[in-house]
Amino acid sequence: MPGPDGRSMDGAIEGPVGIAGLGVMGGSLARALSAWGVPVRGFSPDPDEARAARDAGAVGEIAPTVEASAAGVRWWVVATPLSALPAVFSAGARSAPPRVIDLASLQAPALAAARGAGLGPVHRSAHPMVGSERSGFGASQAALYAGAPVWLSRAPVAEGGGALDREVEAFWRAVGAEPAWIDAAEHDRRMAAASHLPQVGANLIAALMEDAGLSPADLGPGGLDVTRLAGSAPEMWLDLLPHSAPALVPLLERLAEASAELARDLENHDHDRVATLLARTRRWRTE
Amino acid sequence: MPGPDGRSMDGAIEGPVGIAGLGVMGGSLARALSAWGVPVRGFSPDPDEARAARDAGAVGEIAPTVEASAAGVRWWVVATPLSALPAVFSAGARSAPPRVIDLASLQAPALAAARGAGLGPVHRSAHPMVGSERSGFGASQAALYAGAPVWLSRAPVAEGGGALDREVEAFWRAVGAEPAWIDAAEHDRRMAAASHLPQVGANLIAALMEDAGLSPADLGPGGLDVTRLAGSAPEMWLDLLPHSAPALVPLLERLAEASAELARDLENHDHDRVATLLARTRRWRTE
Q1: Are the beta carbons of A194 and B271 separated by less than 8 Å?
Q2: Contact assignment for A218 to B256 by CB distance below 8 Å
Q3: Which domains does chain A have, with CATH numbers?
Q4: How far is A106 from chain B (nearest CA, A)?
Q5: Dihedral, CA atoms, B112, B118, B124, B126, nearest 10 degrees?
Q6: Nearest to A179 by CA among A193, A194, A192, A164
Q7: Is the ipTM value over 0.90, yes or no?
Q8: Interval A174-193: pLDDT, tens
Q9: In chain A, which residues have their Cβ closer than 8 Å to the Cβ of B193?
Q10: Closest Cα of chain B to A28: distance in Å?
């Protein structure tokens, strides 16, 4: 089965694949699979989005319901917002195949939702480290996962779970990604610092700039970079932030302390302390 | 005089131009002028950097001293760190031509330094809104100023100063930049919010990430963007931050308050307030 870049997928993903949610994450996966000739059945709560995915060739068949996206497929991929996972897993649980993946950005709540729907043993959580400040199927692209790290985690599983682990790894390698296993709680702590902190940091800094009477047109390349994430879709982050609050709140409290401390250092002409901060982060960022 | 992109410079810059400082800013200007055939005499306190600029064809003649870079030229451009301006202006004042420009990122202290050296009437401050987290002649490029906004400011000048204003505007237009006049104090307030705040914000967030055990390899594209400026040269910012402290300290104090407030909102599940912040900055950043 020759793919778009001439490599052979060698049957690494046997379809059909059902995908619930056709936004930038699910839509990009649908595009990649369809480009390799894997049959995809897609569901979107937005009929226009489903039709757009079909018209783009990303989805061969539109599933009329969540349940229909899970029935009769070999893989079921749930690419909905995190807060929708409990309802979506429950809706598909009865008909779901023994290979279920979600793409949520936080994994402890995703595992809990799967367990709550009785899907624990057949479910793995997969967080591709990709994304866009744009959202929806219109922002999807077949190459989104090429070269992307994908964090995988699982609930403690029954005997024989290792076979599914290997199948899930092969699934992601087949679309060009680089999967690696992690503990779900550790994953979520890392995401709070690596992803949620810079997101809200960009929001906070952008709000101060607006208060100062600036517009993005007043910024140089550095200021534009720092505030790019401030353009992210609020609904995506309102879906995640309540779940990451336990890890994120202490980071924000430390950001508050560090900002106040730097203000004091500048006011007191304590430039040695400022120099220490600048030298330390330069080393970290450029090494 | 045909330039590298086929346009004619039409004598807009009559040389020779003396440039004191051949880092990324002065070096890029030297490259652009030399590419148009304008004679450039350059000084660097680092003999290796001066030789590199001559070997690259950016500088036709190496000036052995600051004074020599100012003597017998038509324009004298001072492209040193802000903190060096008083000494450099004083060194060149006696021999300087009646067209003196500095490229400092803060203009009230630059104007004060020129006034202190008796150069007020013949000096204009020019801040090109370009830059790089890299520094030194090795990071210079002939096209750095193409399309770049350049803020111009001046001290209250004697009668007849308008002619120099127009010459300075034409100078920057000739290297492809877009000059505009601004009040120096207003410029410096804007820079504190548009440039210094995102710089130190990136430093603060990067330090928290390092504390959390992350390395840049753990970041997605968003986290990399937000922290890119954390790789900036400390010496450049240690040169500027003491001067921008009066405007920057209140911004850092407000960043501290806003961070603590967001932490409280998340802790109290006050998601309406979080939503307001996210929606507001998305509108600002994407409109």
Answers
A1: no
A2: no
A3: 17-182 (3.40.50.720), 187-286 (1.10.3660.10)
A4: 14
A5: -50
A6: A164
A7: no
A8: 999 999 999 999 999 999 99
A9: 208-209, 212, 214
A10: 17
